[in-house]
Specification:
By secondary structure, the chain is of the alpha/beta class. The protein is built from 16 helices and 13 strands. A 7-stranded parallel beta sheet has the order 3-2-1-4-5-6-7, with helices on both faces. A 6-stranded parallel beta sheet has the order 10-9-8-11-12-13, sandwiched between helices. The termini are close together.
């Protein structure tokens, strides 16, 4: 049995880590393809090392570019790999251009596709991620859903066959990684103290490609830092590039607004646990912060992970400066408590379920 797994972006490395490890324990031949969508060391190589992901069998080195160019280039290169390897099935993860290119290349060659993290919807088609995941779902043969909401989304679109509710693979790896995290060491490294700082990540195109949105968020971070609490901001390469373009990094920055290069996965887990509140437009960071008991403010108008909002642990506030700062200050002033038993994303065994279903279902293709 041969499986090709296709990854290319930081969240996909996380999602693939345990799946890859468990497939190989079952003596499945896995061919790992890295498209190179994230090519910065801290966004790519360090994750492979830290999560013990095997070295990719193919590194396509696509790099950044427009959506059409990047996806088209990936299609060409992935097709070459699939024609050579002739896998029984292809695994794709999440909602990036890598996801869509992998699914399309496979479907065109009549190779079954399994989509891990299927069924998520923001219902905002201006988001490239929404297009990627919707199209991928409609050409996939096996759809592994992280939540009941995701299953219902697929049903509304007429997708019933091959749908499995397995939970969130990111919960699996987060719980696994947490066992080896040294929180004090990470806090000391970045000169932070427990529950006395705000952790921030901003990377989505809807914010980084929109000057007004990004500057509103930036002003919110500055205002919060000026109030005396540290705001730790590991800056995505794309976000830094845009901030430089707008000239804001040349202007005075409050000493409590700490800009960092991207940090490792385990460091991120440590800081999500230790922060007082998280501000993020990342779906993965939203979930992880809640998994470790930290409330989350989301500078977006919608989220795919609606259950977090419904539980009252994450807050959609939009991108206006005053709305972001108001909600953060409200959380800082409260003794906020998250019941971690109310987890809508499974029991931490999604990766086992996915591997078992793959092994069972492959005989039917």
């Amino acid at each position: 049995m041969k499986i090709v797994s296709i990854v290319g972006a930081r969240p996909q490395f996380v999602k693939a880590a345990l799946i890859s490890k468990k497939l190989r324990k079952k003596e499945v031949t896995e061919i790992l393809v890295h498209t190179g969508q994230h090519y910065d060391f801290n966004m790519s190589d360090i994750f492979f090392k830290e999560l013990n992901l095997p070295k990719p069998d193919y590194y396509l080195g696509i790099g950044s570019g427009s959506h059409g160019w990047q996806t088209g280039k990936m299609l060409i290169e992935i097709e070459k790999v699939l024609l050579k390897e002739k896998p029984d099935i292809v695994l794709v993860y999440g909602d990036t251009n890598t996801t869509l290119a992998g699914a399309l290349a496979s479907a065109k060659l009549h190779i079954p596709v399994a989509h891990i993290e299927a069924g998520l919807r923001s219902f905002n088609k201006k988001m490239p991620e929404e297009i990627n995941r919707t199209l991928t779902d409609h050409i996939s043969d096996l759809l592994f859903c992280p939540s009941k909401t995701a299953v219902e989304n697929l049903k509304r679109e007429g997708i019933f066959k091959g749908v499995y509710l397995v939970g969130d693979v990111m919960l699996d790896i987060a719980l696994e990684a947490f066992k080896t995290v040294n929180i004090d060491k990470v806090l000391n490294k970045y000169k932070l103290s427990y529950k006395n700082f705000i952790l921030t990540t901003i990377h989505r195109a809807e914010n980084t490609n929109n000057r007004e949105n990004l500057l509103e968020i930036w002003e919110a971070l500055k205002k919060l830092a000026l109030k005396g609490i540290k705001v730790f901001f590991p800056v995505h390469p794309r976000t830094r590039k845009v901030l430089e373009k707008y000239g804001v990094l040349k202007q005075p920055i409050p000493k409590n607004l700490i800009l960092s290069k991207p940090i490792s996965y385990k460091e991120m887990i440590a800081l999500e646990t230790a922060a007082k509140v998280v501000i993020t437009d990342s779906g993965g960071v939203q979930k992880e912060s809640i998994y470790f008991g930290t409330p989350c403010v989301i500078p977006r108008n919608e989220t795919e992970w609606v259950e977090l909002v419904e539980l009252g642990y994450a807050f959609l506030v939009g991108v206006k400066t005053n709305l972001i700062t108001q909600k953060v200050e409200e959380i800082l002033s409260e003794n906020f408590n998250i019941d971690r038993k109310q987890n809508p994303y499974g029991d931490g065994k999604a990766s086992d379920k996915i591997v078992n279903i793959l092994l069972r279902e492959l005989g039917g293709f």
